[in-house]
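Troubleshooting: if your tokenizer reports a length mismatch, compare against these two reference records.
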Amino acid sequence: MPDERFLPEAQRLCRKHGTVFIVDEIQAGLGRTGRFFGGEHWELDPDIVTVSKALSGGYVPVGAVLLLRDLHKKTFSGLERCVVHSNTFGMNELAMGAGLAMLEVLESEGLIDNAAHQGERLLAGLSEMVERYEMLHDVRGEGLMIGIEFGPPSLLKLRAAWKALETMQAGLSAQLVVMGLMHDHRLLTQVSGHRVNIIKSLPPLILTNEDVEYALGAIASALEKAHKVRGGLWDLGRGLVKAAMKR
């Protein structure tokens, strides 16, 4: 999460130097963080906003660029500039229809408020686990965009197992938790990047109270297994290491 002053200050500097201020809302926008746009948490006023991913509810590939009218006029200022940006499949009726339907559902079903409410419950439950599990180092996020960060445990045996996995492949420890959540609980998560021990949780905006309780129980169960040196996730990790060594 950025420092509270970072994004407003970046915006101020762009304004000062006449630079266009662009906010990427492709993943953080459309209710994901408990606001329509993630930048609203910092009261940002961008010149350009990019959106995609959730714009069709995930059913149709669609993206959009929102920009100030003056910028649009300068970009397409005349006939010679009409081809500055073009797209073979731009503005197709299926994508536009899906986008409009998604926006209607987002508003009529109160999904933005639900993301804010359920996100608070998830973050609170996950934050309580930080004290209980050595490998769990930090939990952060806004709404239903949550990062779960893992790091080396202090217990000697557990630390040795961690080191063995991380020597084989950086980020493998978090990947094992992801695999355990899917295998044992059918809970879909993902690591936030290659060689990164952070799990990214992006649950659907229709999440219910029951879903939150199930997710918290599943994550706690996966962490319990991860903190046992024998069995569970570590056996899976050893299997991956042996298979890699054979290759």
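Reference record two:
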Amino acid sequence: MRAPTAIVAEDEAALREQLIEQLKALWPELEIVAAAKDGIEALRLLEQWRPDILFLDIQMPGASGQEVARAAAGRCHIVFVTAFDQHAVSAFEQGAVDYVLKPVLASRLFATITRLRERLGSGPPRADTVEETLGQIGTLAGRRPALRWINASVGQNLRVITVDEVLFFQADNKYTRVVTGSSEALIRKPLKELAEELDPQQFWQIHRSTMVNASAIDRIVRDIRGRLQVHLKGRNDSLLVSDSYAHLFRQM
């Protein structure tokens, strides 16, 4: 019996390599025949290799993930790689089209692999089933999910950081500092753009140059000049609260 084959289509290089490494570790028998960095390449590789499984990022440059999924419908099993949160994708948790969340957790990927192994004995999902799933994805896309992970430079390396790890973001010239409990990194995305993507219930803007993870706040104190300072759990950092955002702590 021949080994099953797969293509991985993901535009973020670090996540693409991470997913491939995890698949090799969790499913050694799976033969990953190719990897695509955009939708156009995914369509070409789909025709060239005709894989059993396609791991497909929903949002890619070139042809969209939805367009690639429609081309793959009825021809191979599809696993969507998505940034939607766990609650949002639960609507098609038991569907014929599977998914994994970014950043990919080994436990969730193993559950997906288990289902794929069972399904390989039967044909791939029909085009109408894939279309139904794409309809659900379109509905979810209308409710833009909050940012869940970022790619950040740490020295010469690229690190995937979940937003839950982040204690605060701080503007730094053309970059934004990303500070976690154990490290610091830089990203090119401006703080203003981050503010539009982060969950406002989790990240509070306390200064035009600073956003803090509310769950990381230990206490708020006033300095000798009467200004509010945010102190973080387990760190010596103190972050200035500007007058424009002092209303967040009005009870003081």
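Descriptive notes for reference record two:
- The chain has a mean pLDDT of 86.
- The longest strand covers residues 166-172.
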